[in-house]
Design brief:
The complex is a heterodimer of chains A (375) and B (93). Chain A has 375 residues and is an alpha/beta fold. Chain A contains 16 helices and nine strands. Chain A has a nine-stranded mixed sheet. In chain A, helix 2 links the parallel strand 1 and strand 2. The longest helix of chain A has 14 residues. Chain A is globular. The C terminus of chain A is likely disordered. Chain B is built from three helices and five strands. In chain B, strands 2-3-4 form a three-stranded antiparallel sheet, covered by helices on one side. A two-stranded antiparallel sheet of chain B has the order 1-5. In chain B, strand 2 and strand 3 form a beta hairpin. The longest helix of chain B has 13 residues. The N terminus of chain B is likely disordered. Classes of the chains: A alpha/beta (375), B alpha+beta (93). Chains A and B meet through helix 1 of A and strand 2 of B. The structure holds iron/sulfur cluster (2 copies). One iron/sulfur cluster binds next to helix 13 of chain A.
Chain lengths: 375, 93
């Protein structure tokens, strides 16, 4: 049966189907968060139609992918959002979806509460409006809190509050936990990657080394907090954090974007990590046969990390974080806990960072205006 | 006082895979997903998968284990089944 390390070795060679499949329903979004990993804003005219979306779900069910993560953009903007979600759960494909909460009014909350196999993650990026709105836009925090209130009133049960960890909010860890407790919700913390529009803000917003250590210790003390295996690069600090501690891109993780493109992970929306399109050959074929995914399932090259005593814990960190900061994939993670990433960043000969291939940002950032101020 | 890992799982009783659980074969064994508690569990050997799939054909877990593995590994598989039982993957029949 073997220890968990042998299981991780198996995972390195890829699975018959992903465990963590993210499907971004739309690039349309009514917010314009500065760190948006998918550079969302405008709807793409080539978006999968309702019937294409349903056919994709049928294929996902046939592959025995037991649950999917739905994101965007703002997925609830799609008019067929409920139709798609209900189609999935009727086939026992569970849905976890991420939302900014702006579309969850009292009646949407009741409808959501009536669906089985559904998890909701509401995003905020600060424990107070000031901190959160700096990233997500004026009024967004209040709207997210309103959505949480509606879910609570509708007896949705345990939803999730999802926070991207930044230099500005790591000091608020206990407040986030208190907020989650207030709603009977689960806290979920994830890593800021320099992906999408995040390329622009990563440098100024990613946690300092000291903050990362503080986060690591806090996570060890709060094992109930979900992280989606985000912080395994911090496992190099000592005891491993819960999770696989492995970059799952193309092995256990992948992304289907709104127009059916398949990428190795949600944080590498770039031509270099594009494996194919579900419209052309179906998802299963891309997952199993794409040359990109096959190459990602080869044993990794530890490169500059080969001599590091913590390589087994951290495996050189996150591919996306390296790629979008202009590092080689064999370099240490830019946030290497021993500072080797910073050294590598300084040694880049040309600071030419790739920019995300599709960019659906609106040319002018939208302002959130509450209805009241319009009358 | 310490509780044994097989405290509530009786390997001489009749068992079956819960109707709420789906199995997906993988090279290392299988993934088991419980649609009720939404937990994902890894079955880390093909033998364990065969035993779990076969449970309902045998009059006890012991017998199912005997059908698929050498006696020297028997105890390990009792422990493995007990752990699946605790994850609510198995139920009596
Ligand atoms: S040197 Fe590489 S393996 Fe070691 S901690 Fe840094 S990033 Fe991780
Ligand atoms: S590239 Fe980074 S975010 Fe994507 S799967 Fe690998 S470690 Fe996770």
């Amino acid at each position: 049966m073997g220890a968990d390390t042998s299981l991780r070795d198996r995972f390195e060679h890829g699975l018959a189907a992903p465990i963590c499949l993210t499907w971004e329903l739309t690039y349309a979004c009514n917010l314009a968060c500065t760190h948006c990993l998918s550079s969302s804003g405008r709807r793409d005219p080539l978006e999968l139609s309702t019937s294409e979306a349903k056919a994709l779900i049928d294929e996902i069910a046939a592959m025995q992918i037991f649950y999917i993560n739905i994101g965007g953009g703002e997925p609830m903007i799609r008019r067929d959002f409920f139709e798609i979600v209900e189609h999935a759960v009727h086939q026992k494909v569970g849905v976890k979806f991420s939302t900014n909460g702006t579309r969850i009014d009292a009646s949407a909350a009741r409808r959501l509460a009536a669906i089985d196999y559904l998890d909701i993650q509401i995003s905020i990026d600060g424990a107070d409006a000031e901190t959160s709105d700096r990233i997500r836009g004026a009024g967004s925090y209040a709207q997210a809190r309103r959505a949480m209130d509606h879910l609570k009133d509708a007896n949705f049960g345990e939803f999730k509050i999802s926070v991207v960890m930044t230099r500005d909010n790591i000091g608020q860890l206990d407040e986030f936990q208190a907020l989650a407790d207030h709603y009977g919700a689960q806290l979920r913390l994830t890593r800021l990657r320099p992906s999408g529009r995040g390329v622009e803000v990563w440098e100024s917003l990613h946690p300092t080394r000291e903050q990362n250590r503080q986060l690591y210790e806090w996570l060890l003390e709060h094992p109930q907090v979900l992280t989606g295996d985000s912080f395994f690069h911090l496992s190099a600090l000592g005891d491993p954090l819960d999770g696989l501690n492995l970059c799952g891109a193309g092995r256990v993780v992948c992304l289907i974007d709104p127009i059916g493109e398949v990428y190795a992970c949600p944080f590498v929306i770039h031509d270099e990590f594009k494996a194919g399109n579900v419209r052309e050959s179906g998802f299963a074929h891309v997952w199993r046969e794409s040359p990109l995914f096959r190459s990602l399932r080869e044993p990794g090259n530890p490169g500059a990390c080969a001599s590091c005593g913590s390589y087994d814990a951290c495996r050189g960190g996150c591919m996306a974080a390296k790629f979008f900061t202009g590092l080689e994939l064999t370099d240490p993670d830019p946030e290497c806990v021993f500072g080797h990433g910073e050294t590598a960043l300084d040694a880049r000969r040309v600071v030419l960072r790739p920019t995300p291939s599709p960019d659906h940002s609106k040319s002018v950032a939208v302002r959130l205006v509450s209805r009241k101020s319009l009358v | 006082m310490s509780l044994s890992t097989t405290d509530v799982f009786d390997p001489s009783a009749r068992w079956q895979l819960s109707g709420q659980v789906s199995l997906r074969d993988e090279a290392f064994g299988a993934l088991a997903y419980h649609h009720g508690n939404r937990r994902l569990v890894f079955l880390k050997s093909p033998e364990l998968v065969a035993i779990v799939r076969g449970l309902s054909q045998y009059s006890s877990a012991h017998e199912a284990i005997n059908a698929f593995v050498e006696p020297s590994s028997h105890e390990r598989y009792v422990v493995a089944l007990a752990s699946l039982f605790r994850s609510e993957l198995l139920c009596g029949r």
